[in-house]
Specification:
Layout: E1 3-21, E2 24-38, E3 43-49, H1 52-55, H2 57-62, H3 65-83, H4 91-110, H5 117-123, H6 125-138, H7 144-147, E4 162-166, E5 168-169, H8 175-183, E6 189-192, H9 203-221, E7 236-239, H10 247-260, E8 266-270, E9 288-290, H11 297-306, E10 310-313, H12 315-318, H13 320-332, E11 337-339, H14 346-356, E12 368-371, H15 374-377, H16 381-386, E13 402-404, H17 407-412
Parallel strand pairs: 4-12, 5-6, 6-7, 7-8, 8-9, 9-10, 10-11
Antiparallel strand pairs: 1-2, 2-3, 4-13
Helix pairs in contact: 3-4, 3-5, 4-5, 8-9, 9-10, 11-13
């Protein structure tokens, strides 16, 4: 296959309020589009959502928010130009061929020789999605199951009727709003920890803030029951975004969680340590999940060997191609996976949903899960939903905290192969 024409663009989507994690705050997220036309005349448009803070916090803090986003968008544009020079058979081939050059270009424009690979992969999501759509069109495929390579299908064999919608409780989400979300049916809480309360990078203050945050939330929801977990309690999914510096400090937090009765509610703890942290973590008494540190299948394997016992998949942040490779490795190692969000737009939620609904349930859960927090954070979320090619479909909007997936969802693959409204 050869691409003969490309183009790209972006829209800046404002957030309702500053969105805090990794000790920083976002005010907007750029939505990117990548257009491709193949020699056969088929055309495809892929979508992406950029997050410089998530993908490389050093780039975020070293530049203005706008400049960091602009750098990532330059990588998208550069990748599309490179894609026109390459012949490829599958999107995996295309990613393998352009990733090294785009990575080197990324180091140059960010002036960062240690640029995190996830920054580059984030820039390639729209490109990779367009490649998958184009690949399917050229091969007369319009169904997600048919799109999957045979060697990856054993890892994605489920077809859940329900997915728990995991909302995100970032630093500034009030306790009242958390309780209200639970009352609305959301029962699986993703809680951001690792706050820098006084903006002085004092880890002792961070630890105390995290303890207080967990205690407040646990006291507020500990008596609420749910039918969707093995223990009948609301599960907590803690995301530290690499803010803890040592196992000793993390154990201080977990010892506190045990004393307050919250430890057995922690079903996942994501990325407690920085990526460079290489100590064995198999003795940590909660299930640790790798997210942005598992850039590639090779990195995921290294994290598994280190003692991580879950992987956060992000087809909407690290490309579908790389995520499929990661899930294959995880399946071989019997490591559970789940799909996490990047605060993406509604169409990308369904790209994520197609993977999430085919994963086995997490240990401790009775139904599948999918993090989706766009409704909490985008100022124009309703307008964005109206641009979904299946706008109004029952599977798009969660009901009582659950995405209900009927046969029509599977038949249409969540609408990901349909033309985007307004495109």
């Amino acid at each position: 296959m050869k691409i003969i024409k490309t183009n790209c663009s972006f829209e800046r989507e404002p957030l309702i309020a500053p969105f805090g994690f990794k000790g920083g705050y976002l005010t907007e997220l750029w939505q990117t589009t990548a257009y491709m036309q193949s020699e056969s005349g088929n055309e495809a448009v892929g979508l992406g959502t950029q997050s410089t803070l998530w993908s490389d916090a050093n780039v975020f803090v070293s530049n203005s928010e706008h400049d960091g986003n602009n750098m990532m968008f330059q990588l998208t544009s550069y990748a599309l130009e490179k894609a026109k020079q390459i012949e490829w058979h599958t999107p995996f081939d295309l990613l393998d061929k352009i990733l090294p050059e785009v990575y080197e270009y990324g180091k140059k424009i960010t002036n960062n020789p240690h640029l995190r690979l996830t920054f580059v992969l984030n820039s390639l999501v729209a490109v990779d999605n367009a490649a998958w759509i184009l690949y399917c069109k050229d091969n007369s495929t319009s169904n997600f199951d048919d799109m999957l390579p045979e060697d990856i299908k054993p890892a994605l064999y489920c077809k859940h009727a329900k997915l728990a919608n995991i909302p995100l409780m970032s630093y500034d989400v009030s306790l009242e709003n958390i309780v209200e979300a639970v009352k609305q049916g959301y029962f699986f809480l993703k809680i951001k920890i690792g706050c820098d309360p006084d903006k002085d990078d004092n880890l002792d203050k961070m630890l105390e803030w995290d303890k207080n945050r967990l205690k407040q939330i646990h006291e507020a929801v500990k008596g609420i029951e749910t039918q969707y977990t093995d223990n009948g309690h609301i599960p907590y999914y803690l995301d530290a975004n690499g803010r803890y510096d040592s196992k000793d400090r993390l154990m201080q937090f977990l010892d506190f969680a045990k004393k307050t009765g919250a430890l057995d509610r922690i079903i996942l703890m994501e990325e407690p340590f920085a990526e460079e942290f290489e100590e064995d973590v198999s003795d940590i008494p909660v299930r640790l999940a790798a997210d942005e540190s598992a850039h590639s299948d090779r990195d995921a394997l290294a994290k598994i060997d280190q003692g991580f016992s879950a992987i956060a998949l992000k087809p909407i942040a690290k490309t579908m191609s790389m995520s499929l490779r990661i899930v294959e490795i995880a399946h071989e190692k019997n490591i559970p996976c789940f799909c996490a969000d990047l605060t993406v737009n509604p169409i990308l939620v369904d790209w994520n949903k197609n993977v999430a609904t085919r994963l086995p349930v997490l240990p401790g859960m009775k139904i599948g899960v999918l993090e989706s927090n766009g409704h909490q954070n985008y100022k124009n979320w309703q307008q964005m939903k109206n641009q979904h090619p299946c706008a109004g479909a029952l599977w798009i909007e969660p009901k009582n905290g659950i995405f209900n997936l009927d046969q029509e969802f599977y038949k249409q693959s969540g609408g990901i192969f349909k033309d985007i409204i307004g495109d």
